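Troubleshooting log. The previous run stalled partway through. Resubmitting the same two chains, unchanged.
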Amino acid sequence: MGKHVLLVEDELNIIEAMRFLLSREGCTVDTHGNGTDAAQVIRSLKPDLVVLDVMLPGKSGFDILEELRADTETAALPVLMLTARGQSRDREMAEKAGVSRFMTKPFSNAEVLTAVRDLLYVHQHKG
Amino acid sequence: MTSLNVLLAVCLAYVIFLFLVAFFAERAGIQGRGGWLLRSPLVYTLSLSIYCTAWTFYGAVGNAARSGLEYVTIYLGPSLVIIGWWWILRRLVRIGRSYKVTSIADLISSRFGKSNTLAIVVTVMAVITVTPYIALQLQSVTLSLSIFSAAEQGADGTRIDTDYAAFWIAVGLAIFTVLFGTRNLNVNERHHGVVIAVAVEAVVKLVALLAVGIFVVWGIAGGLQETLARIDASDLGTWQTDGSRWATLTFLSAAAFLCLPRMFQVMVVENDDERHLQIASWAFPLYLMLMSLFVIPIAVIGLEVLPEGSNPDLFVLSLPLSEGRDGLAMFSFLGGFSSATSMVIVATLALSTMVSNHIVMPIFLYLRQGGASQSGDVREVVILSRRLSILGIIALGYIYYEASGGFGALAAIGLVSFAGVAQFLPAMLGGIFWRGATGLGALCGLAVGFLLWVYTMLLPSFGPGVVLSAQIFEQGLFGLGLLRPHALFGIDGLDPMVHAVLWSLLLNTGVFALVSLFSFPNPLERLQGAQFVNVFDHSVPTRGWNATVAESEDLMIMAQRILGAGEARTLFSDQARAQGLSGHLPEPTPDFLQHLERVLAGSVGAATAHAMISQIVGGSSVSVHDLMAVADESAQMLEYSNQLEAKSHELSQTAAQLRAANTKLMQISAQKDAFLSQISHELRTPMTSIRAFSEILRDTEGMGPMEKTKYANIIHVEAIRLTRLLDDLLDLSVLENGQVTLNQQTGSLADLLDRAIATAQASASRPMKIRRRRLNETITLQTDLDRLSQVFINLMTNAQKYCAATAPELLIDVTEHDGRIMIDFIDNGDGIPVDAREMMFEKFSRIGAQDSNGAGLGLAICREIMARLGGDVSYLAEVEGTGFRVVLPHSVALAAQ
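Second attempt completed without errors. Output:
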């Protein structure tokens, strides 16, 4: 049974690339393009993994992550965070907010896929 | 016969007894015991009796024998003063205690603005006027000794040399006074021991005189009736009394009672309680009455019984001696001795205080100006200067005694003194009752009165030929008849004493009043005048005996307020321990008070500390001088606190500026961070797509050609986006740094718009309809046409991108106003939300984020370009749809004409 991955991302070409990669891994991929109601969407879709961009229209990825961690239902949900802001501070902020994995754009496809597999199959029941 | 040796031994024993009385009284006073006695009105009244000196004791009888009832005037004056003029005394006492006046010189100088000159003049005058008086005491003691030696002559043939005796008496009195008066320094110039000794002597002289009187009336005359009969039979009752002399003498003794330095000392300085004056006002006249009771009987009987040529000044002694009553004579001698010693001691003390405070100390302090001042050091000097002053004054008395021949009538010598000190009266009374009195007036009055007194009374008292030649007496100074000492200004025929008193006091008062009216007091004088004249308005009655512990408690309470409870308690208990006391309150000794004052001064300033402590310890109100010092101090503190306030204001301003600068820096730093994040984001995003798809293309096997083309296309588009972004960033950077070089060209606006529209439409996915007003576009421009075109293209591209209308339309409208050209680009879109209008000209601000082809630099670049061209680009809020206006500056339009 395929895993369900939600992409929260506003760059169409990046969505396209991720969809291509994840589909080939056998995952079901949903996308959501803005930050404002992302947490709500995540709660209702209950994906196995969220790939979360930082710079989203409406609300930043950090805020969404905090929201998820504050909710018992999504507190342990694996979140792979991708950011294009090259600030070292961002990694600290993300880890503080409880991110599962943090990667900086541009990434290599192999790394992303390793991280996704890791989160989906190895550390699934962690915590 | 009593031998001289026995007499001397008795005198010595008496002196030692007095010294012990004084010593123990002093000690009791310090320890706070025996206050009821030390502070009793009886002691005060008795101490006033130093008015009755040897002159009174011996001289009154002599005076009565020579001039009949005239002697009564000497008692009448003071009685009138203390009964009738008690209000003057009360005022003097209140002023003296309130302002810590130490002598009559201090009183007059304080009143007239702390004038040093006046203090010195009064001191010198006092020394000169009192000198004859001290000589009088020497003379009386010497005379009384000579009576004994004359009586002894027959026994062993030795006769004492009176000059020799006078010298040793002077030495003895000097030692006695030094021992009594300067054993220690009292803050208030008060001497409890001396006062008690004086009171004891007062009793001794009264009892002695009464004893002689009783002996004479009942022992010699044979009873009251007999005595009265003998008095009636004598010439005494029939002697005519000169009315003017009588009045003058009464006035003079009244004035002397107020002005004599020694009277001022016991009456004002040594006074502990104003209420004592009430008791004294009847008790002192009673004492005087008792003193004068037997004067006439002794004089009459003495004249009758004693051989012709006997000195009537010594009847008090010679009567008992002639009757063989050695014991009574001895007692009488002690009475006279008491009168003399008590007067000399108190007078010398009072004078030495004046000399030392107003002459020696100012000179000493002036000479050692700049030297470190140590209080202990000064104390030594003060005591030394007191002692030297005492020796000097007694030496002067002795010299006068020698110079005047030693045989003048006692009363005459006394009157010279009285008239001299009476010169202080106008300045003193004027000072405490008349606010208009000035220091200059007082000085002139005193000087005139004093000179007249010297010329008409003091110098003549030595007799013709001693100081003033007989010629001057007869023909006047420089041969001017108007200047004859006994007939000044041609007024002849008056009694010399009346003459001298009349002229000196009249001119003294007149000059004092006139000069005062025509001179202006300085501010301090004016203030002191007001304080002295209105002393009852702002002072409290002098308090009675304060238990020393109560004072310490008050001091403790004050110190606690200033220093805080803990520190004050530590200070006080440390001091108490240092004094060897078991409690926690020290005695208010001068040392402790000085220490406390220094400590308090550290907190509240020296003047304030001094004022506070003297308020509590002295029970006196704060003087004008203190207040001025306090005011000065407060002004300094105020000034200092103003400076502090200004400083702190400055500091807070600087702090605010720093805070603002810091905030700005933080903002700039945050902006820089945000900018860097933004650039990073804008660069990494296309690169992410490029990398992801290039890897997909590389790694995916068996991909269809359609997909390959699609992904390659994405890579291509993103690469272009990246390139454009870098172009824009570089462009913006160049524009922002002002490094751009404008390429000035001339061309028509219409052509420029044509080309821009063509470019914009070419890149658009969906060309929009353009409406123009070509007629308005016939303008020739001179500017950087390429840059201007860039702005137009940007605006049109934005319109194409963001206009959401189904049939997008763009109106390009050119207008000219005031030589400025305005080019409006208005589409039929939805407009831009109000809150985004401000931001959209900033870098990386995008309104519709979903369409991510632009990095949000376009409008920022437009604004920078227009700024370089001297124009502007702005949002047109008041049109339908979305509108932007490009404004070209005046110069560009002018070039078009």
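Takeaways: Chain B touches chain A through 26 residues (CB under 8 Å). The domain at 655-732 of chain B is CATH 1.10.287.130 (Helix Hairpins).
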